[in-house]
Write a structure and sequence with these properties.
The complex is a heterodimer of chains A (154) and B (143).
Chain A: H1 10-15, E1 23-26, H2 29-39, H3 49-52, H4 73-80, E2 89-98, E3 107-122, E4 125-137, E5 143-153
Chain B: E1 19-21, H1 25-35, H2 45-50, H3 60-75, E2 80-87, E3 98-110, E4 113-123, E5 129-138
Antiparallel strand pairs in B: 1-3, 2-5, 3-4, 4-5
The chains are: A alpha+beta (154), B alpha+beta (143).
């Protein structure tokens, strides 16, 4: 049973550690360039194949925050549709670890899970901190990145 | 682009060149389209105000991207970003400066890699750190 007055419901507790269905993203060079242009980041690594070829990477790669668009919608929907006593949602933070660059032509498989739940008193009152962890694998099965995202419900 | 920075050339306490961004509402729409984040608080003023905000706000991920750009501009094309993260502590609004800054806090070698750890953040025009975080970078060496 959920503790009286707790924001953590049994339904939520059951989701902790449950891996989502994978979602697959084909990485197009044009999408990388469009992404970089929207940040107004002119680094040749994510804009210019010819220039990027001269670097240690040997060609274009995706910029660091590109994983923001490689979502796992199913996990996202599960969480946003949860009927919790705390209705309002805030993105509290993001962290990304990199092991290999993401390159044009890669096929990235994204799985995610609710890794942790914590209840805290904050400036907005009592709140839930939901920590999601995402794993990004490329077509060779190599983990290229791990992303962590703290979502607050209050 | 700045010249390549090498491990031997940096010291703890050293600051990175700041990057100043001033996103227009058009840029927020471009980001929405490129990233797929279509939450209306970022481009629909009426909607934003209906949620209690004064107006549209900048996507947290976009501010994070600006801070990441400050880091990758500084570290050069032959370094490797190992880790980067930020917390969203305050809101940034369009048509105002977002000032991205960073400072090296630690420098060491580990498993043959030359590592620097940095405090990084974005400030608003009042000097409030809206988006503080950390980055870990492997730098190339002269040796």
């Amino acid at each position: 049973m959920a503790q009286a007055g707790s924001l953590v419901t049994d339904e939520l507790r059951k989701l902790v550690g449950v891996e989502s269905e994978p979602e697959v993203w084909e990485i197009e060079k044009g999408a990388i360039i469009k992404f970089a242009q929207s940040v107004e980041d002119r680094n040749p690594l994510w804009n210019d194949e010819g220039e990027a070829r001269k670097t240690r990477y040997g060609g274009m790669i995706a910029p660091p925050t590109f994983t923001s668009m490689l979502r796992n919608e199913k996990l996202y929907d599960t969480i946003f549709e949860l009927d919790l006593p705390a209705k309002r949602v805030l993105n509290a933070g993001n962290e990304i670890e990199f092991f290999e660059p993401i390159r044009p032509g890669d096929v990235i498989t994204v799985t995610g899970k609710l890794a942790d739940i914590a209840e805290r008193e904050g400036s907005v009152g009592r709140m839930l901190v939901l920590t999601f962890e995402y794993t990004y694998k490329n077509q060779t099965g190599k983990v290229v990145s791990i992303g962590r995202n703290n979502i607050i419900r209050y | 682009m700045a010249q390549q920075v090498f491990f031997e050339d940096v010291a703890e306490g050293q600051e990175m060149p700041q990057l100043v961004k001033n996103p227009s509402t058009r840029q927020l729409v471009k980001w929405a389209g490129a990233s797929g984040d279509y939450y209306e608080i970022h481009y629909d003023k009426d909607f934003a105000q209906s949620t209690g905000l004064d107006g549209c706000i900048v996507h947290g991920w976009l501010t994070f991207s600006f801070v990441a750009q400050m880091v990758t501009d500084w570290m050069g094309q032959d370094a490797f970003l190992k880790k980067i993260g930020v917390s969203y502590r305050g809101m940034n609004v369009p048509k105002q400066d977002i000032i991205c800054k960073g400072k090296i806090t630690k420098k060491y070698e580990s498993d043959g890699e030359k590592i620097v750890e940095c405090d990084i953040w974005a400030e608003n025009t009042e000097g409030k750190k809206t988006t503080p975080g950390k980055a870990v970078v492997a730098l190339p060496s002269h040796k």
